[in-house]
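Run log, item B.
One chain of 383 residues. Sequence copied directly from the ordering sheet:
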Amino acid sequence: MSLLLIAALAASSPQPVPAALPLTVGGRVERGANGSMRFGWPGTYFEARFQGDRISVATDSKSEHLRLLVDGEEKAVLREAGPSLLTLSGLYGGEHVVRLEKMTESQTGGARLLFIHAEGRSVPLEPIRRERRIEFIGDSYTVGYGNMSPVRQCTRDQVHDLTNTQLGFGPLTAKRFDADYRIHAYSGFGIVRNYNGSSPGMSLPAIYDRALPGEPAMSADDGWRPQLIVINLGTNDFSTELQNGEKWPNQPALRSDYRQSYVGFLRKLMKTQPQARFILMGSDTFITEVEQVAASLDAAEREKIVTLKFAGLDLMGCDWHPSLTDHRALAEMIAGAIAKTGLGWAPATTPESGGVSSSSSSAPGPHPSARHARWRRSRAALH
């Protein structure tokens, strides 16, 4: 009789309701009425903190590769298209940081985060709040195009699959300085001209304000206020010969348009982000134009600018793009330029530490039991 009573009480006791975790969102998103978030810009990430031993993460992706980490340790990489529900159990019952990262570039489509929930007896904690913020604006170099490839010859599918923006110089730099970051980059685009004259009339400045790079809807002001903006644009403007029918009659006309348009883009950014300092990057092929852009600004504007020439890359990534080694070298160069900005930032980590700061979260490092946590994955439809 007592056993039946215990069973009845257990069956009637309320089960814990999954609780949405408050998120740190690293990137522009389009928020849905159901709380979901669509995202498309490279390098977007979501972070949350919780206490307990169980969480669930629901996503829906067309072509993105998404990486899930707990306490800095990779737990899953989602590569298949469609909705996915993952549940992680068996963590030790202390504080944890969960992070979902966009690895690949999607010039159309993107992905959707449906939720990150604390399950069972797990409880949400306050999200991570970092004081430093860096924005990176650029092209395929900033995207990390094909940076994981061991060879330069790649198919289109290989370029997609071997691109990991999180291992690009932007995130490497940001993690070194324990900064949140956003990346607004689009492979093949420049300031006024795109690779080989493609997509005339379009450019990175033309799509910069979009919520998702492949859709015309503009983003709302979500309060993003970076102290530093790093721009690397010019490779696509000048890397190929002018084609018949392009609007510039010759290289001097193209370079003049580049300089004038770059100044206009900078002044727009300075107006919307008056607190920001800028690092303007350039290779041998266009650093002279970048330096002329900086010199053409007025004195107050020039005080916010540091120019950075980069060279010596092996370009062993897909289609002669920077390799992982190159991205580490570029991050090192940017760290040197940051010291000249007047921000007074000291690195929070060293490159050898992998770019993960001990101050980037209040959660402890991975507990041995976390390595044995169990994933359960469902492909059932999610709403």
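Observations after the first pass:
- The CA atoms of residues 111 and 192 lie 28 Å apart.
- DSSP finds ten helices and 18 strands in the chain.
Flagged for discussion on Thursday.
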